[in-house]
Amino acid sequence: MPNYCVKGAPQPDIIVSPAHENCSAINDWIKHSSIASGIVSFVCTSAYNLAEAGLLDGLTVTTYHQSFDSLRKKFPRVNVHRELRFVDQGQVITAGGLTSCIDMSLHIVRRYFGFDTAQETAALLEYEGQAWKQSSGLKPPKSSNDGCQPVKSAQSCVWPVPHN
Fold it and tell me: What is the pLDDT of residue 153?
C-alpha cells in the first residue's frame, strides 16, 4: 500500500524504480527527487522511464536482456551494457531483471553500510549469489571506506503513486 501520492512525498535518500508502465507524474517526481537523492536505481524495463525523464543520457546502464536493443534504439544517448548484472555509475545504479536486482540491492547495502553488513544481509536472505561483491568496473562510487556513505535517517518507505 502506497504511503504517499507523488505530490507531497518526502525526499528519499534512495530511489528504487521497479518495472512499471510509463507514467509522466512518476517520471517527473523521479527527475525532481533525483537531484537530492544519494542513489537513483532502477530495475528491468524501468530504464525506459528514467531514459524518458532524461536521467540516463550519457550513462552506461543495463536492463532486462530482451530490452537491450529496443532501449538502445529508442534512446541513442544511453549506453546499454549487455554483460553485467548491475551497473554502478555513482548516483545511478541499474539492474537487469528480478534476480539481478538482489545483487544491486546488496551492492547498495555495501555502499552504505560496508561489506560485512551486506554479507550478513545476504546470509539472512539465504542468498548465495556472488555478483553483488563485484564492481561494475565502470565508475567507482563517490565515497571511499569500502564504499560506505552515511544514511541521513531510517525513514518509512516512500512509494509514490500518481495523484488522481
Answer: 37
